[in-house]
């Protein structure tokens, strides 16, 4: 039986806005990030998508996003956390090396790329091996990208550009395999943060 797995990135955070490297370190959702999560919630409601289980990373930005999207009880999993960027955490994104990062961050106390990718892939597999049929998991940009790449051999659709805040990746899960079937990129052009007085 085909199961459905929605993997979603969290809403915009303060560090996203300030262009800070944010992996295992955390920062709160901005006002725009909250509106982005509300937009995702409206998408699921408008499409009559009902989850039977919900999961997120242990980072507050992920759980805060999930709580806006659904009022379902949820489980926080360390396996859904973002890449550990070591001593680059909280520093300017200008310090990022050019892509692909491979094992750059492992030299500075972070995770090796393949270990990070396997952590996320194994966690998602365990989630779908549970008695779940329609699942929402809120995670992070690089985590979503690495999971997509892990299963790109089963999928015909691709997203080359960066995975934006609250982007939703819809996977089918059958016979222990994930297949990416849809990428939902919301139009946030009509959203804006309130200008402080």
From TrEMBL:
Matching PANTHER family: BROAD-SPECIFICITY PHOSPHATASE YOR283W-RELATED, HISTIDINE PHOSPHATASE FAMILY PROTEIN
Disulfide bond in keyword set: no
A matching Pfam family: His_Phos_1
Molecular function (Gene Ontology), one example: hydrolase activity
Enzyme class, UniProt record, top EC level: hydrolase
SUPFAM superfamilies reported for this sequence: Phosphoglycerate mutase-like
Species in which this protein is naturally found: Robertmurraya beringensis
InterPro entries linked to this entry: His_Pase_superF_clade-1, His_PPase_superfam, PG/BPGM_mutase_AS, PGM_Phosphatase
Protein name: Histidine phosphatase family protein
Keyword terms, alphabetized: Hydrolase
EC code(s) of this entry: 3.1.3.-
